[in-house]
């Protein structure tokens, strides 16, 4: 099996301290290198970077697409977790009072792409989807 390469994603925030609190304390991501204008986080082995860019934060709003009865925020990013990790994260986010765009649920029930999903936003309004499959081999299944 080929090892998955870590991805790198940079995204805008309007308050770096709020980003540090959310990504570090709420999401549990270890902070890496940083400066007064940006900071790296270890997002399940992937490198995400919050860049201070108040003029382009997502709070202004973006569109949505209908997916299995939900209005899914576009753009968004996230990780596919193991089901136990996903459940633990959902519980932690609920305990921390995170507001969900789409509360933790299972979609595409009984279909090849059945998955647990949840959508929420960081303090800058960036949409995040965390998902899990009971059978990760079905990640790209079409039927």
From TrEMBL:
CDD domains membership: VOC_like
Domain named VOC: residues: 5-133
Gene3D superfamilies according to UniProt: 2,3-Dihydroxybiphenyl 1,2-Dioxygenase, domain 1
InterPro entries membership: Glyas_Bleomycin-R_OHBP_Dase, Glyas_Fos-R_dOase_dom, VOC_core
Name the record gives this protein: Glyoxalase
